[in-house]
Amino acid sequence: MTLHSVTMTINGEIEGATVPSQMTLLQMLREELAITGTKNGCAAGECGACTVVVNGEAVNSCLVLAVECDGADIMTVEGLAHDRRLDPLQQALIDAGGVQCGFCIPGVLISARVLLDHNPQPSEQEIREALVGNLCRCTGYVRIVEGVKEAARLGTAV
Amino acid sequence: MQPKDKTPKLIGQSVGRLDAQEKVTGAAIYADDIQFGKGLLYARLKRSPYPHALIKGIDTSRAKALPGVKVVVTGEDFPNHIGLYLKDRTIFALDRVRFVGEPVAGVAAVSEEIAEKALDLIEVTYEPLDSVFDAEYGASADAPLIHPDLENYEAPNFIFPQPGTNIANHFKIRKGDVDSTWGKCAAIVERKYRIPHVQHVPIEPHVAIAQMSEDGKVTVWASSQSPFAQRNIFAKALGKSQGDIRVIAPYVGGGFGCKAGVTMEAAPVALATKAKGRPVKLRLTREEEFYTNFVRQGLIINLKVGCDENGLLVAMENQMYWDGGASTEYGVNITRAGGYSSTGPYDIPNVKTDSMCVYTNHPIGGAYRGFGMSELHTAVGQCMDELAEKIGLDKVQFHKMNCVQEGDTLVTGMTMHANGLVECIEKVAGALDWGKAVPATAANKRRGKGMALAWKAPAMPPNAGSSARLQMNEDGTATLAIGGQEIGQGSFTVAAQIAAATLGVPHDWVNIAGPLDTQFSPYEWQTVASRITWSMGNAIKRAAGDARQQILEVVADSWDEDIEDLDIVNGIVVSYKSENETPLRDLVVYGLPNEDFTEWTGGPIVGRGSFMPTYVTGLDAETGQGKRAVVHYTVGVQGLDIEVDLDTGKIEILKAVAAFDVGKAINPNLVKAQIEGGLVQGVSSAIFEEMQLQNGIMQNPSFVDYRIATSTDIPGEIESIIVEVPQDDGPWGARGIGEHPMIPTIAALGNAVYDAVGVRLEGPPYSAERIFLAMVDAGVVE
Asked: pTM for this structure?
């Protein structure tokens, strides 16, 4: 088992870890660094619960190796709020009633944040398509989509 | 003076969720997030590759010798039978395996990789046996026996196993005289429906961590809807006191019934008893989540229903073969619930029902949102639609004539309570423009509307109880301890709302003592059966009422006033007589001094409350008749306006309408969120979902092959309608709504498809391919 020293920026802070070759970014976040907001729902890139931002793009963190992210800029759900001020997207999702069990929400928020960063005024269809990889079993997506629409209306991130 | 029974303003307000902020920031803790450090051991399970086989030998010696392996256990180590109702399984298979995926041995090692390697080193010798993969066949005399020891299993007195057969429970209804009434029917519909196995698919897979200390006390951290039921089962399995078992249950990342009772949690507990004090964690892979966990069991239902020339229902004969699987954790009680609700929400004078839970070599049947009702209603809802058409009545008219109403004698002999089913029918019909044909949006599409009714009672033992404890804090806020779980439905928010409304404080003055912990939380039977708002809500109302009474007694004593003249408004005790007032913070912990501070009255205020229904009666074993089978029924209606693409068979839902009678919506937004989420889960099960079981092996155990609804599959519009006809013993009239929204969906969709293109399938899923082929068979398309 080969070990690698990696350094990356996670939610604005520089983090270092020693990881085996096969360790995924998701495992590094949750098990090495105990940054547990990002969830493990399938470990196969199918449910989207582990979605994080890697260098500006939404990525299933269970499908990338930690060593591949050496030097990368990572943002997880914990990085959305600043100084106890919620990202408008987080607030909009709360206000719309888009949260139930909450397990898919970290991934949903990241996918939606990346969508709005790339496309600040998406159509409803574009929102639905951007979230197609984030499975939710509780909400029926209705209020999640409403929340993202409202966040788009309110404007940019904090 | 205030009228005492007036509904407080807070009841019926859509206050925001208590848990939303921590859930959107990633701060909410789920079981897999808890850190155990370097001492943690990782468990993996050796599973049966055979659906049915005798175990001739297990050699674990090579696994035990692998460096890093700390514990290896097999069935011999834990021979006690466990089970929620019928005690028909062991933690690990003993002498035979009964489904593909059944645990045969367990390993705990210093890493998941080593544990996995150790599994490969365990050698199990099997002798395959003939299997049962069809419940109707399983119930026949020709089928091989799956539990030859059935007569020796312990069962509660409302479950009727049939030793010498594969029937784990046979529930009967004999109401009126069915056989002689068919001749009086002007129209009869007789159909067979097959409802496939589906899986719950919470996004959070099952996870549990167990640890046994040197003094034999066991602590379990689990994603659980039922920490107290789990504690009870663990205690019995290990021969320990309930007081020596502690279950800690943080937020649940989706339950839907699959995290009720004990599923995979028994394995890490068993391993922990031999792990010398180290914690042992078992986390299911998504593949295991699909094929090894409790399932919504399949159903084969033969239904015959008839009405007279006026369209009034006369008789029903209902045969249900539930595919209980290898053992029947919840299956036996689903069978019972299917039996005592077997008419659906219709008033039928003559009923003959045989509801049978049949052992098969399929995964174990568990509780799934609806507890058998979606499956039953798939048949009932479509047969009623057919019968209305056959007798020549408008369907809305037919439903209104025949649906259960207050005072009707139900299928079990129970008298129906006040309910708003007729109002639900009318509202859904109105919202869907029922009876008004609307053209399809394209030439290659056909439009149709479908409606289906639903009912469901909480399925539980007659004496399932709840309790609550409200402790006042120094600043006048309160901490509410409950045993009901937050599984996404919003129970913590509603619990706080009920406590705050009763006490007389703003809703955000009540905190929930979490996570649930059987050592500190008061007893709750289980967070299942749509019973929490009702049952736990009653306990909370009593606990907060108790605290309120104690507070008012202290103040009345201090002010020398009559308690009847006092009230608590927005956290301030006021007297309507003297117009004195004092904030709660001045007295709820420190008490009140007399004028010269020489004496004190009161002290820390702790309110307690319990609730348990006392009036549910048993049912006759031969007729299924009794005074009161259940606590109540929640009723409702769903209607769908759809299009079917003639070129592909694909269904698009343009509009979905649902109306449910919740008695009283404590928090209307949360009720609507349940109605929407349940509807989409229902649509998902109706269009996409099926566990493809071939010779007992699931062919599609992944999200790619077992598709659930995504954000692009949702109806174009959902209208949720709340009807409120109060429940006499619910908090401010409330009854549950968690499960109901998905119950009528399959039938409503089946009826809409029939309306659109004139075909009916034998059962879901109504996938594009299956609809298209049915249209080809019926000559609708070439």
From this structure: 0.97
